[in-house]
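Phosphate acetyl/butaryl transferase domain-containing protein, pasting as requested.
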Amino acid sequence: MSLYTTQSESFFMPFSDNTFCNFGFESTTAKGFGPYPTHEFGENGVLFFADCGVNPDPNSVELADIAIATADNFKNLIDKEPKVAMLSFSTKGSAKHKMLNKVIEAVDIVKQKRPDILIDGELQADAVLVESVCERKAPNSPIKGNANVLIFPDLNAGNIAYKLVERLAKAQAIGPIMQGLKRPMHDLSRGCKYMDVVYLTAISAFQ
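Structure tokens follow.
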């Protein structure tokens, strides 16, 4: 586990050239999750965010892999059905831009590879978190405004959102939790608090 004195880049650098190939550094994704104080959103207040710390600009295949890994981790750690929302600035074609293509393609890839996962996109954040908004913007969405796994289109969006929710909503953010590895390995933010270390250590032991 990397603590708050280490930059993420220097933490991951030894693994980028397979120096520690026995560690199984095949793919990397990260997520942060935090119980919202009122338990209004997610699964009794728990939401998983991805990718919050590793992949700057994933393509559609990588985005699909992030969604699958995060859904599986949600199931393993929370023991509830993941409801995966692929986030964007558009909801079901409300906007047209090439940036949306990879999100739409990623949804199709996940449905093909893992039809057991409940997933929908492209969707705006309010449509996946508020049922009344979902009814207006995406009435046929299986998410129904009750998403508990949020997949962001790139690291800019994921990292900013995770830190805003932690600081402004005063949610307990836990992570980022590394995914796609054969053994537990995690990288804490340099802005972490002591309880962040406690929570992530507990998750590492569980894994």
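Note for the archive: The two ends are 13 Å apart (CA to CA).
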